């Protein structure tokens, strides 16, 4: 449902933030991917698949104690391949600096499964977060048949500034006929802060 959610409101404008600054655009940290669109969720076109072991690998990468891991997973597990990069339709880069002007790069690898009706070609549309460079390779995904998988990588290069805050954008895969639009939020959060 995440990749088919609508980040626009009924007037086709970005969903606005509630609270202190109700006229600014809401970030994915506040609204997730947007409003659920059940019709599109039934036929999403592409799917980010992951297994229970992939979730275990994520938990194992979080520097928890063995007791904490057992408490979270609550079943037998194998922590031999910990990985913080879950095949999930969200890209989030959290930074914590003590000085501005530092450049950091975060890399992600994702695999998409074609769950549409057959062969399909998807082209990338990118909305870069402010003060960042985002690179996606490849920029076109070609699927020869249903249930075929294709992988891509996304790299975020961010130059830290003096403002603490959230910067956001998105990566959207658009099927060449326009039938499927598969959107993933990109979030950069950080600043000169201790997050203590």
UniProtKB/TrEMBL annotation:
Extract the coiled-coil ranges from the record: none
One Gene Ontology biological process: proteolysis
Citing just one GO molecular function, the answer is: serine-type endopeptidase activity
Any Pfam family from its record, for instance, is fn3_6
Keywords, sorted A to Z: Signal
- Indicate yes or no for the key word Membrane: no
InterPro entries, alphabetically? Peptidase_S8/S53_dom_sf, SBT, Subtilisin-like_FN3
Domain Subtilisin-like protease fibronectin type-III: where? Answer: 85-188
User: What's this protein's family per the entry?
Assistant: Belongs to the peptidase S8 family.
Q: What is this protein called?
A: Subtilisin-like protease fibronectin type-III domain-containing protein
């Amino acid at each position: 449902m995440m990749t088919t959610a609508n980040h626009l409101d009924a007037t086709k404008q970005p969903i606005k933030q509630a609270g202190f600054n109700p006229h600014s655009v809401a970030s994915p940290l506040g609204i997730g991917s947007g409003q659920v669109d059940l019709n599109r969720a039934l036929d999403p076109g592409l799917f980010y698949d992951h297994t229970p072991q992939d979730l275990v690998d994520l938990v194992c990468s979080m520097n928890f104690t063995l007791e904490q891991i057992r408490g979270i997973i609550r079943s037998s597990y194998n922590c031999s391949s910990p990985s913080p990069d879950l095949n999930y339709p969200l890209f989030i880069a959290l930074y914590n600096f003590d000085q501005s002007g530092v450049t950091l790069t975060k890399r992600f690898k994702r695999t998409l499964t074609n769950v549409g009706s057959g062969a399909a070609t998807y082209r990338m549309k990118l909305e870069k977060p402010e003060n960042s460079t985002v690179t996606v390779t490849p920029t076109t995904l070609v699927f020869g048949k249903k249930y075929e998988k294709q992988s891509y990588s996304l790299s975020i290069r961010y130059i830290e500034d003096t403002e603490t805050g959230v910067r956001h954008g998105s990566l959207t895969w658009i099927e060449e006929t326009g039938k499927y639009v598969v959107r993933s939020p990109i979030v950069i959060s950080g600043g000169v802060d201790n997050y203590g």
